[in-house]
Design a protein that fits this description.
2 copies of one chain form a homodimer.
Chain A (H helix, E strand, L loop, with lengths): L1 H13 L5 E2 L11 H12 L12 H11 L6 E4 L2 H12 L5 E6 L3 H10 L2 E6 L10 H7 L4 E6 L12 H14 L2 E5 L19 E6 L12 E4 L2 H12 L7 H12 L1 H23 L13 E2 L9 H10 L2 E2 L1 E2 L10 E4 L4 H18 L1
Helix pairs in contact in A: 2-9, 3-9, 4-5, 4-8, 10-12
Chain lengths: 359, 359
């Protein structure tokens, strides 16, 4: 279905149709000019030769400082997706399994399938605000559970767990000697502004420059973990991607220097957009109010057929993603609140009107 | 040993020692300013969002044109190393094996190990000019041989096979229904200037922008193959690296537009350096005269202990790589002829003098 939608989008755009694309997990802001300038200067200065498979020491140090660990605990990766793939590929053995809370980012499951181990999926319910239940977690883990993947805030719900709940899960995992993988792609965009996550021995942090800094296509992210885990990822980097371009790593250093302001601005923008979305759609659909990021994951009324609804919407010029792309959520849609106010209002009103027509 | 050398280089440089580094497989030329400018313009124009996991259509078309195939036969990869990894990872099954001619680029063997299949290594002999013997090839292939990896010109010997020999190997493989993987990283640098390799059904071409264009740290390359093979690599890209940065792909398009001149200049430079090297070392060491690229792979006199020789050389300010890094060649060293004439002369004379001292 996702493929069919992509094809239709491609076709419609080819035909010259103007679309409001709220289907992509991509912010519409760009990194500041100073970051772009850094790339150019670096290339001009010859900072474009082979680099370390671990990443540049200066960047690793800066990241280590943020998470209160050592540079040896950090590896730079071409996006956090590669980081997660390399991590799972080098760590998962035979009958190991990983717990994934659903709705979930499609990549987790696809990576599990590719590597050939079991993903144990726990379906969270909108009716319970997508909260994680510790008893259920307790029942699901077994002696082969190696990782729990925690994506808080979550793609596609844009719900970040409370710090208290996160602590409960971390403590639970520590007790069971299970590692937590915290995919923190959207953490900077928590409306309540979180501190940087502090490294711990049973914690692995995956992060990316894509969302906070609007650098999706730059392909740069990182993994923070115990040194023995990092070493294995570095060894895989050496025989696959070699390194992340040095000039992009220098830009990432520049980005981190300005993180406070950039993240603050992005957070404010996301909050405003979420409020706008809530206001427009609240009488038409059920959803859990986002407290982070730039998604909303509403449920369509029962009588609506999701795929048909999404395709009709596309013909009307608005692209969103059917919930089935994120697990067993056939009645949901994911809307990326990633457009200017005017377009966003227009699109969300159109979505609401389409629903009114059907109820 | 390689690791020990890297550590020593790092230490010596930290101590402020100036080294002539002929150990890295990296040209010392840079891409023209227009290519750098393209990156900057592209980023400024917002060409930095998520891109296709297959690569940009315009770049794929340009590459397809070069190799006389369709854009569907091309996938853009972050370096040809990733291309080779993704290719072997998605194609090799159970008991499949691949033939590697040695001396060989270390990555082939490491990738085989990582993926867990057999690399059947055929050791070529300097005394026979590193020529491939078809009878030996015939004896080595078996019913499980899926690929023959052809690296012509070869890293580390800088020997390109004659077109006639290449044709014989391609014909042999076609008859046996084995696929040839042509790793053409150095093909543009053949002193006799070869035409672009033409795609064929049992041929897979791996290439990179690293060497010809001096874009090593940019991490961009490609694979040309049958569509069914390309589709599998695209699917792996989707769940790992996502895409190569769009702004780098636009720079690659710019690079291809200027390929004739850039490759021509690089070829001439390489030829001159090879001639210089041959002249300086010919009375001191045995070697096969390079007909391409920027390496030379001489054999040390029998009484010299290679590792000790290489480490002593390093203390004297010159870095080279012991032959053992490229297979069962313990008496060889690889010299990267990748420095200006003055430095190269100085380094090669120093190497020659060190040998004279010992014979």
């Amino acid at each position: 279905m996702l493929y069919e939608i992509s094809e239709r989008i491609y076709k419609l755009e080819k035909e010259g149709k103007s679309l409001i694309k709220l289907n992509i997990g991509e912010p519409d802001w760009s990194p500041p000019a100073s970051i772009m300038q850094t790339v150019f200067q670096a290339i001009k200065n010859g900072k474009d030769s082979y680099g370390s498979a671990a990443g540049e020491l200066e960047l690793r140090k800066k990241i280590a400082e943020m998470h209160e660990c050592d540079a040896k605990n950090v590896v730079i990766t071409p996006g956090s997706k590669w980081g997660l793939y390399a991590l799972l590929k080098t760590q998962m053995k035979n009958n190991d399994n990983a717990i994934i809370f659903s709705p979930h980012w499609t990549a987790y499951e696809l990576i599990c399938q590719e590597i050939g181990f079991t993903a144990k999926i726990i379906n969270l319910k909108m009716e319970r605000n997508f909260e994680i239940n510790l008893d259920e977690l307790q029942k699901t883990v077994d002696s082969n559970t190696k990782f729990i993947i925690l994506n808080s805030p979550c793609n596609p719900t844009s719900i970040g767990l409370s710090e208290q709940k996160e602590k409960q899960i971390l403590d639970f995992a520590a007790e069971k000697e299970i590692n937590i993988i915290a995919d923190d792609a959207y953490r900077d965009l928590c409306f309540d502004s979180r501190k940087e996550r502090k490294f711990a021995d049973n914690l692995i942090i995956a992060n990316t420059f894509s969302k906070t800094f609007g650098m999706t296509g730059w392909r740069i992210g990182y993994i923070v973990a115990k040194e023995e885990i990092i070493k294995k990822i570095i060894a895989l980097n050496q025989i696959t991607i070699t390194c992340v371009p040095l000039f992009l790593q220098l830009a990432a250093i520049k980005a981190l220097e300005q993180k406070k302001k950039i993240a603050g601005d992005a957070r404010k923008l996301c909050k405003k957009r979420a409020e706008l979305a809530v206001k427009i759609i609240q009488d038409k659909m059920q959803f859990t109010k986002p407290n982070a990021g730039f998604y909303i994951f509403p449920k369509l009324p029962e009588n609506l057929e999701t795929n048909k609804f999404v395709l009709n919407l596309l013909e009307a010029g608005i692209a969103v993603v059917p919930g089935a792309a994120f697990g067993d959520y056939p009645k949901h849609i994911r809307i990326s609140l990633s457009a200017d106010n005017k377009k966003l209002t227009q699109a969300l009103e159109k979505i609401s009107d389409s629903i009114k027509l059907h109820i």
